[in-house]
Amino acid sequence: MKIFYHGQGSWSSNAPSGLHTEPNLLALSGNNWDDYGTKTTLNASLYFEGQRLDFDFHIKVLIEGSDYTAATLNEMKASGGWDGFFPIPSCNYVTLPSDIEFYSIIESKLGLENARRLLDALNDAGLQKNIIKDDVFADLLASSGFSNSLLRESGATKSFEDGWRIFDGTSIEIKNFKLNLLTKDQRIRPVPFRFESHLLPYDINVLIGPNGIGKSYSIKSLVEYWLKTGIGDLKLLEESGHQPFDKAPNFRNLILVSYSPFEEFELDLEQHRLQDKQAYTYFGFRHKRPDGSIGINRNLPAYHSAMSIIKAIYDDTRLNFIASRVQKFPTLKEALSNAFAFEHLAVEVTDPSKLGFLSFGLRTINDKQYLLLDSNIPQFVIQDVLMTACDLEKGVIFLKDEALCTLSSGQRLFTYIAINVVGELKENSLVVIDEPELFLHPTLEIEFVSLLKTVLEPFKSKAILATHSLAVVREVPSKCVHIFRDEGHGLDVVSPPFETFGGDMQRISSYVFGDKSVTKPFEDFLVKQLETYTSEQLITLLGSEINEEMTMAILRMERHR
Questions:
Q1: What is the pLDDT confidence band of residue 520, given thresholds at 50, 70 and 90?
Q2: How many alpha carbons fall within 13 Å on the CB side of residue 228?
Q3: Taking the alpha carbons of 536, 538, 544, 547 in that order, is the dihedral positive or negative?
Q4: Residues 341 and 400 sit within 8 Å (Cβ to Cβ)
Q5: Whole-angstrom Cα distance, residue 217 to residue 4?
Q6: Does the pLDDT at position 462 exceed 90?
Q7: How far apart are CA 59 and CA 41, in angstroms?
């Protein structure tokens, strides 16, 4: 596969054309996107057998001595010193793709040896640093242009950290990292997120503590530091000298789920100077109105679920040539079937005429028509047409025995969250969920954690949950539990000194919430009764209504009277 630079394009043009002489081609064109005074972005398209692959990405190229890559390349072509084909002659340069999936694509399409030749011609920065290790590129990799432009966005950072690993055969996993949380009183409180373990399940980290103490703020800080927006803006960090992480987190994209009525997380990246809009996805009740104001729509989880499951089905087809890629739709369907019984996932159809052959297989229930979802749908109708033929506001429908499944409000939100997360999951995603217990009863909380682990594992992805739920904490090893508390000396973040995984709920509660434990009313009741009765009398009176914990509490209180 060859690499060809066409010439100047623009920031809004992201599909450089192919060449009829080169059916397999990485086509590039100029882009004037500005990263703090350095312009390195090139529009990019991949062509295989003359067909453009539906994969949106950019290639950033840093040339030694140049702060505007496209202008430099244009001059070289205009002078007749270069025909546009890589490698670029007579200069040192390094490159990075905006999406790590670029590496999986070229390996699957070209084979490992030819993929290596392509990356050699590009002088891929991760390959140069970790495998080739040519000293001639050391200054470029250490330059401000590299850190401020090529590593400006999270997708390129992930490419640099892990893309080269296709050549050494190591598995790409999310590594431990430490968030240096800057509190409101300007103190630094480290939050050591741990995702690496040889045995215990370190796939979920939990933030727990009273309301108003900083859990949501820590999530907001994590998002902005990683995206380099808001308080994570590079200029602000340079001025303050604050280092938000001990090392760059190597997750690929961040999916934020929050159905709290008080959350104020980012809705999207449209307002920020970022090209990688897929690096962050928000699911909640808030949305932007056409006039730019923020509105609340409680039906958004349902609408997003229909959008997400359709996206998952078409993504499976679009990228099914990648051998290592997990198929989203069957993974999701199997995971949900373990949670409750259903036969089919479906969407309601309002205009069957748009569906062609698929219209003959619609199910009619109570005078409404439903399309049964499966992996073959993309063979018969394009994605945009399918979405206009369906009532997406109704969300994903569950069918069993020719009827709609009846789900509680908690079960519906439970399924919507799972579907929305899987729709956006990529390998090495980080899923952050704020207070999942708001609409889930305790049994569903545990089922939700189980379902979340099931869908995270095949995608080598991890999660962070901010919660008050002791049931959730009991499903997580203590090193992955981060207790937020303030005992009069400012915010502190600690892990329990005992193992929480499968641990005692009362012990967890006492340590996390201290004197404000949810068991205090129960203790107050016993104290009052012991003013009238001896411990032996009280135990006898309670009879069959007493349990082991209550007996131990009564005897303990008697000893301390």
A1: low
A2: 23
A3: negative
A4: yes
A5: 46
A6: yes
A7: 6
Q: In whole angstroms, give the CA distance from residue 333 to residue 345.
A: 8
Q: Rounded mean pLDDT of 470-489?
A: 89
* Closest to 427 measured CA to CA, from 149, 129, 124, 102: 102
Structure tokens at 373: 């979802």
| Residue 482, beta-bridge partner list | 207
Candidates 64, 59, 56, 65; CA nearest to 6 is: 59
- Residue 298 sits at the vertex; the CA angle it makes with 293 and 299, to the nearest 5 degrees, is 105
The three-state DSSP-derived secondary structure of 108-155 is HHHCHHHHHHHHHHHCEHHHHHHHHCCHHHHHHHCCHHHHHHHCCCHH
Angle at CA of residue 383, ends 377 and 389, nearest 5°: 85
Of 205, 203, 266, 249, which is closest to residue 493 (Cα–Cα)? 205
What single-letter DSSP state applies at residue 359? G
How far apart CA 421 and CA 297 sit, in angstroms, is 19
At 144 the pLDDT is 92
Q: CA-to-CA distance for 561 and 557, rounded, in angstroms?
A: 6
| 32: pLDDT strictly greater than 60 | yes
CA dist 544 and 560 (Å) reads 25
User: Number of C-alpha atoms within 13 angstroms, CB side, residue 264?
Assistant: 4
Contact status, residue 432 vs residue 256, Cβ threshold 8 Å? yes
* Residues 154, 461: Cα–Cα separation, whole Å: 16
Of 498, 495, 512, 477, the residue nearest 190 (C-alpha): 495
Q: Are 435 and 426 in contact (CB under 8 A)?
A: no
Q: What is the pLDDT of residues 386-418, one digit of tens each?
A: 999 999 999 999 999 999 999 888 888 889 999
| Range list of H helices, 14-96 | 69-78
Give the C-alpha distances (Å, rounded to integers) separating 502 from 358, 411, 468, 471, 477: 48, 24, 17, 9, 8
Return the number of other C-beta atoms located less than 10 Å from residue 294's C-beta.
10
Helices then strands, each counted (H, E), the chain: 19, 22
Which whole number is the average pLDDT over 322-332?
92
Reduced DSSP (H G I as helix, E B as strand, rest coil) percent helix, strand, coil of the chain, to 5: 40, 20, 35
